[in-house]
């Protein structure tokens, strides 16, 4: 599925980490929310409120979940899950084009 | 109006100029198309196919249309029009958060 249909899109961008992460918010009829965005090469830590599924359209990164020592690598076509009320470290090696699904 | 409703959104980002410009494409039921995006501080030249209305949510830039010598300044809350089959120089002084309406 290359597009989302029948959604509402917030016009204003979300710009985080001095522009290292840029996203736009999509609101769905069932009350769920996703963001579509880009993370440029960087080392960042994200905090989560809701749980997240990060779906990668393109790019390459490694991530480490809070409380874990192991880094796991992901690239375009893959996805990873982050628990809610937590955090993860993400090292973006090639610009990530992503969809973030909030749980 | 802070959001667009009942639109289709292309999941994949448009990344131009080595990441200086990032946008996502919105498709409307009437067949028109807009992009929502960000331009980071930079000096760029954009070519246009269709005519464009650039609506600025935030940021500050100056632009010079093809064939003109004058630079005009725009900032959040303002918009400018660019003819089709043309080009414009844009100097982004503060990160632009924009909606581009294609005519």
Helices and strands in order:
2 copies of one chain form a homodimer.
Chain A: E1 3-10, E2 14-16, E3 21-27, E4 33-39, E5 42-48, E6 52-65, E7 72-75, E8 79-82, E9 86-102
Antiparallel strand pairs in A: 1-3, 2-3, 3-4, 4-9, 5-9, 6-7, 6-8, 6-9
Family (chains A, B): Belongs to the nucleoside phosphorylase PpnP family.
InterPro entries (chains A, B): Ppnp, RmlC-like_jellyroll, RmlC_Cupin_sf
GO molecular function (chains A, B): guanosine phosphorylase activity; purine-nucleoside phosphorylase activity; thymidine phosphorylase activity; uridine phosphorylase activity
Overview of this structure, please?
- Chains A, B: It catalyses: xanthosine + phosphate = alpha-D-ribose 1-phosphate + xanthine; guanosine + phosphate = alpha-D-ribose 1-phosphate + guanine; thymidine + phosphate = 2-deoxy-alpha-D-ribose 1-phosphate + thymine; inosine + phosphate = alpha-D-ribose 1-phosphate + hypoxanthine.
- Chains A, B: One of its GO terms (molecular function) is purine-nucleoside phosphorylase activity.
- Chain A has 103 residues and is an all-beta fold.
- The first copy, chain A, has a single domain, classed as Jelly Rolls (Sandwich), CATH 2.60.120.10.
- In chain A, 0% of the residues lie in helices and 69% in strands.
- Chain A contains no helices and 9 strands.
- In chain A, strands 1, 2, 3, 4, 5, 6, 7, 8 and 9 form a 9-stranded antiparallel beta sheet that branches.
- In chain A, strand 2 and strand 3 form a beta hairpin.
- The first copy, chain A, is globular, with a radius of gyration of 13 Å.
- The model of chain A has no long low-confidence stretch (mean pLDDT 97).
- Chains A and B meet through strand 1, strand 3, strand 4 and strand 9 of A and strand 1, strand 3, strand 4 and strand 9 of B.
- Strand 1 of chain A pairs antiparallel with strand 1 of chain B, so a sheet runs across the interface.
């Amino acid at each position: 599925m290359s597009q989302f249909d029948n959604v509402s899109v917030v016009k204003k961008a979300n710009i985080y980490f001095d522009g290292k992460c840029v996203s736009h918010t999509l609101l769905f009829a069932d009350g769920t929310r996703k963001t579509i965005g880009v993370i440029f090469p960087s080392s960042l830590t994200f905090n989560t409120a809701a749980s997240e599924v990060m779906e990668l359209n393109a790019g390459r990164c490694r991530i480490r979940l809070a409380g874990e020592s192991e880094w796991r690598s992901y690239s375009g076509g893959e996805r990873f899950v982050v628990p809610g009320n937590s955090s993860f470290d993400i090292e973006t090696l090639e610009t990530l084009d992503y969809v973030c699904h909030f749980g």
